[in-house]
Amino acid sequence: MEVTSRNGGGNVLARLKGESPLVDNWVVKAHFIAGISCLFLSVLAGLVFSTQFMRTYLFPGIEPLSPGKLRFIHTNIAAYGFLANLFFGMLYWAIPRLTGLRVWKRGVSLFLFWAWQAILLASVVGFVLGYAQGVEWGETPIFIDPVVVVGVILMTINFYVPIIKTKEKPLYVSLWYFTAAFVWTGLVYVMGNYLPQFFAPGVSGAAIGGLFIHDLVGLFVTPLGWGMMYYFVPLILKKPIYSHALSLVGFWGLAFFYPLQGVHHFLWSPIPMFVQYGAVTSTIAVEIVVTTVVVNFFMTLRGSGSILKTNIPMRWFYTGMVLYFITCLQCAFQVTLTLQQVIHFTDWVVAHAHLVMLGVFGFWLLGVVTHLWPKVTKREWWSLRLNVWHYWLSVVGLVIMFTDLTIAGLVQGFSWKSLQIWEESIIASMPFWMIRAFAGTLIGFGQILWVYNLYKTARFGKPLEESLPVIDREIEVAPASMTRPALAS
Amino acid sequence: MAKSPIERFSAIFLIAGLLFFAFSFIASGLVPWLMMNKVPIKSMDDLAKDIPPSFYELAKEYPKEFKQHYGEANKESFKVALEYGRDLYIAEACWHCHSQQVRPVSNESQRFGKVSYAAEYSNVLQMPQMMGTRRVGPDLIREAGKRTNDWHMAHFYKPVSVVPVSVMPEFTWFFDQTKRPNKKGLAMVTYMQWLGSWIKDTTDAMKQSIPAEHRK
Ligand code: HEM
Ligand code: HEM
To answer: Are A232 and A177 in contact (CB under 8 A)?
Structure first.
């Protein structure tokens, strides 16, 4: 592997010359810690909110802790705190390794880290004081939005500099996804937060709001997630991705079809019907595209499946991929105008949201942190068993939650359709809501064990230096060099 | 293939990033927006031209509180209360548990009333729009006149007192120590009773509660 030494070797050379290292460990670690704290906060808010559904709300009569405000905290901190922070940490690790170059400026990375946490804190304070903006996923108070936009632009530059300057051309798959994700994120954020608020009322605003909801998950979360998988999976398996052609189909299919789906959040609404048909069609099209990506990864795994027994990060990745496939299958049905009659507005959608946000992208990120934590702390895991517990509690909890809410959604939908009085649907949902809280508790418990393990590892883990020669740790096999054999053959 | 131009930064940035995004925005955002362009966006002043009778009743039922927070029941106070009600509807996340959209399917028109149409959303109180994507509780776009003002007050204070199985939170901070509605409580009920009031036929009996000088 002669190509290898160029990228990874840069780090060693830099070290020898006394320059700053390629990857800034501090920033990676800081984002990981922040992200995991946010996971905690979000799960906690979700659990407390779920007690409202059992008429046992923990903080009744306290205005700042109104259940609705906790819902804002729950969803926003899950998306912008948990997922975003962990993605950023991952990018600070992966992009320099993929390009062989440092990010633009260390000062900018540090500034962005603190600025992002300040934004999150300010949003939570804003929600509590009653300044939420009335845009789904855009609840961040309107006066904080400009700061977010500036932050996203700065971050884009910070990551684009190495991507533009790299000599690794053409770009590796992961970098296609990262590059596109950053153009989209800024545009999506501005569109979704400002147009419905100031320019587009009602139905036009709903069309744009739908675009915003779906673009955030499809053009921010999804590309970063897949780019991340294209980086870590071949690296851990030590073999190239199965098919470069499938990678291309997956990326360009996603780029074209994903942005077109937004209106599927408002099916059967007064938005013109032809726009709704378009959204449904492109949604079903994207399922096919997504399947190619899943196939690509499972073909890559073929012959190495036994790694799932021993390697917990890989287990997270492939569990996420199975769940992703289930999501896609589910989506292709839930998006049809037939099924929408019943499942729209119900817990079915909430089940879907948890399946993808936690079960797919959340799980992948938990896998990445599990993979990288020993590397960034330079210590071995304190306990491998706790990691296994973390995995099983989370997966079992999530599967229970998803199944439970999906059934609940069908029950609610048919109850409404059959014109039972409204209260019947609440009575019927009550057991499901209790099971949801139970499943959430399992998930929360899993995270507690893991955080304990992360802490113990960072403080008391055996130093990694002793067990691994420096050269192995420093020289990562750059995946860019790994697609080439696939191309040649 | 290894030199494939579509794997370059510039192609990804321009085609996937900018071009495809712009296309999607035009096709599924701009087109429906432009189709609605001819429908004027009603301002608060336009909305205050049709004050539902329930607003005057509110002033009579809670005279002391109403006077204290809003003064007389007229266009000006209606605008203030209505807008504040909408703001609270956003701040309390009501819109995450209630929709404002009756669909033409699933027997919804039988349950809630007239199916929603585009023009009724073209006003400043639907910026941002409140159509919603979840129903823990029922739809609200046809709420006006379904319940009395008192019913709403009791319901906000303690939902299970009127709907025993309700899972809706208790909004006790819409009331003062003596359990009378405060500025927030009055605003919320004004907003609830406005939602859908534009399609309700006001009967002669109901008009009795509108003071003569405000009647059309
Ligand atoms: C291609 C795959 C996907 C399809 C076809 C799809 C389809 C849908 C549809 C049709 C809805 C609206 C359901 C309704 O309100 O009746 C929905 C809601 C939602 N989806 Fe997806 N989705 C996909 C992927 C994702 C991904 C990757 C994420 C997260 C990362 C996600 C997160 C959500 C969330 C959070 C909601 C609920 C938002 C709301 O309140 O309306 N989806 N999805
Ligand atoms: C583990 C404990 C959790 C519990 C008990 C929980 C509970 C809840 C509850 C009660 C809701 C409101 C549902 C409704 O409106 O009917 C909700 C919504 C949501 N939660 Fe969670 N949650 C948990 C974890 C998570 C995590 C880890 C994530 C993300 C990574 C997440 C993402 C979401 C999203 C995206 C929504 C909005 C769904 C929608 O609008 O359709 N949740 N959750």
So the answer is: no
